[in-house]
Design a protein that fits this description.
Structural class: alpha+beta
Shape: elongated
Radius of gyration: 18 Å
Number of helices: 8
Order of helices and strands: EHEHEHEEEHEHHHH
Distance between the termini: 10 Å
Strand order of the largest sheet: 1-3-7
Oligomer: single chain
Largest sheet: 3 strands, antiparallel
Helix content: 25-40%
């Protein structure tokens, strides 16, 4: 089966809903959203995610570039549309056909890149050690409180995997120097998160790991 790789820029809240769907489906459109717009190339998706989403409160001041694959034979049901320059190529999926479109997705939806505005707070969990903390405070806690307790670190990674998934690329980019965390410590903590993710046998790869093919 020949596959087509598509991309879609999404905000924080939409990514959280995609996670809830096992990274296998996009959430239903709202009443004022009659069309679902996947795009044909990563440059277009990145442009939207970088230039628009981080300024948008409804997007949680974050833009994520998602990537996924559908059969080319199925995609032929929809006419590609150029909405600006030649790079601005997208497909228009009627909202009532989104469930069928989701069912055509092969494999998982991956997160390839992310961009964040100054007002980004991240996904805030409601349980366990990271409860009620914004994305910055979550990472500071993980870098200090459990620095020498691998068991607690691994348990927290498993218990709050949704928050860790959504906030991961922000942590990988953010400068925590004002919190006494130098770049090496940040990178070491990122490495520990990766190790804990693997140890917990979490089926969804962390963001930045491609999971779809052409």
């Amino acid at each position: 089966m020949t596959m087509a790789t598509l991309f879609r820029p999404v905000g924080l809240h939409e990514l959280a809903l995609i996670w809830d769907a096992g990274m296998k489906a996009f959430p239903p459109r709202l009443p004022h959203q009659p069309i679902f717009y996947p795009v044909a190339n990563i440059n277009y998706a990145s442009q939207i995610a970088k230039d628009w989403n981080p300024k948008d409160e409804a997007s949680g001041f974050a833009g994520y570039v998602t990537q996924f694959a559908v059969p080319k034979a199925y995609l032929q049901n929809f006419e590609p549309r150029t909405v600006g320059a030649s790079v601005h190529l997208e497909y228009w999926i009627p909202a009532e056909e989104l469930a069928e479109f989701n069912a055509s997705i092969k494999g998982l939806i991956g997160v390839e890149a992310a961009y964040f505005g100054a007002a980004f707070k991240g996904f805030v969990p409601e349980q366990f050690g990271l409860k009620g903390r914004d994305a910055v405070r979550q990472f500071v806690t993980m870098s200090s409180k459990w620095e020498y307790d691998s068991a607690d670190f691994v348990r927290e990674t498993s218990a709050n995997r949704k928050a860790i998934f959504v906030n991961f690329l922000f942590w990988a980019q953010y400068d925590f120097a004002s919190f006494g965390i130098i770049q090496k410590q940040r990178d070491d903590t990122i490495g520990r998160i990766r190790d804990a993710w693997t140890f917990n046998h979490i089926d969804v790869p962390l963001p930045g790991t491609s999971v779809t093919g052409t």
